[in-house]
């Protein structure tokens, strides 16, 4: 594997303050959060594959709104059917049991993603599609970076990514990694680099110090190094999409 399976660190973090400005609609019975750019254009779009907190987690909705503020139409499908993990689970919540028995896997997740992408590229007129994957979603950002899927992808602190999924990507891939990350530690980063170096697609891997797994979504914004790393990871994603998904950006806005 190019990263390890999810663990306890995947559910730890800080809820961020803010009010989401998007809306929730249904795509073939799949609840999906939509965030629109100022001009309401859907030609350049991003699909976000979330961590195990799911689509309704305010932090990821605020991130979607940030991408929209930078000119992208954004969709976040509910890949968990609402059966998600609460942030900082209480002591009586058995996270490892949830991962082993309730967390969705490829046979149920892939069909949902396929339906959403078909809808985006069909009825909604999406011409270019970027994939963003956080933690659990990192697997699918890589897995769907292929013909008929996403054209470009970004992932932060990915988990559960198979080596073959990295080897199978067909477009530009950008990765934001944490210095302290038992899911995507240094040996797995190096394994990923070794794979990417042998491929013909553009790639990028940025390592951020003083942060842990989950920093790009759930970090403590009161801590200056964490806030800086989260913002820089977001700007990394926007710059990547501006370069490989659309041209003529006026610069990223936080």
The best one-word shape is globular
- Structural class, by secondary structure, is alpha/beta
Main beta-sheet strand count, sense and barrel state: 8 strands, mixed
Whole-number radius of gyration? 17 Å
| Number of E-type strands | 8
Beta fraction: 15-25%
CATH-defined topology: Rossmann fold
In the CATH classification, which architecture applies?
A: 3-Layer(aba) Sandwich
Share of helix, binned: 25-40%
Number of domains as seen in the coordinates: 1
Protein name: Alpha/beta-hydrolase
Pfam families: DLH
Organism: Lentithecium fluviatile CBS 122367
Domain Dienelactone hydrolase: 30-245
Structure description:
- The chain has one domain: Rossmann fold.
- It is globular and about 45 Å long.
- With 254 residues, the protein is α/β, with parallel strands linked by helices.
- The chain has an 8-stranded mixed beta sheet, sandwiched between helices.
- 33% of the residues lie in helices and 20% in strands.
- The longest helix is centred in the last third of the chain and has 21 residues, at 224-244.
- 47% of the residues are buried.
Write a short abstract of this structure:
With 254 residues, this protein is α/β, with parallel strands linked by helices. The protein contains eight helices and eight strands; from the N terminus they run E-E-E-H-E-H-H-E-H-E-H-E-H-E-H-H. 33% of the residues lie in helices and 20% in strands.
């Amino acid at each position: 594997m190019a990263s390890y399976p999810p663990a306890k660190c995947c559910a730890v973090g800080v809820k961020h303050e803010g009010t989401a400005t998007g809306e929730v609609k249904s795509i073939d019975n799949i609840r999906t959060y939509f965030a629109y750019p100022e001009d309401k254009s859907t030609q350049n779009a991003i699909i976000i594959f979330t961590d195990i907190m799911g689509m309704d987690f305010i932090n990821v909705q605020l991130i979607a709104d940030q991408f929209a503020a930078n000119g992208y139409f954004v969709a976040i499908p509910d890949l968990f059917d609402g059966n998600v993990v609460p942030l900082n689970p209480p002591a009586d919540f058995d996270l490892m049991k949830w991962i082993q028995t309730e967390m969705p896997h490829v046979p149920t997740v892939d069909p949902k993603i396929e339906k959403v992408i078909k809808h985006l590229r069909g009825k909604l007129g999406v011409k270019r599609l970027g994939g963003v994957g956080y933690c659990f979603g990192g697997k699918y950002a890589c897995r769907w970076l292929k013909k008929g899927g996403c054209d470009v992808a970004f992932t932060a602190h990915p988990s559960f990514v198979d080596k073959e999924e990295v080897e199978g990507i067909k477009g530009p891939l950008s990765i934001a990694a944490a210095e302290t990350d038992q899911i995507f530690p240094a040996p797995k980063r190096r394994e990923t680099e070794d794979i990417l170096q042998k491929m013909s697609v553009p790639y990028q891997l940025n390592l951020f110090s003083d942060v842990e797994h989950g920093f790009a979504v759930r970090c403590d914004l009161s801590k200056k190094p964490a806030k800086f790393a989260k913002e820089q990871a977001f700007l990394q994603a926007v710059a990547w999409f501006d370069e490989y998904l659309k041209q003529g950006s006026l610069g990223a806005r936080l």
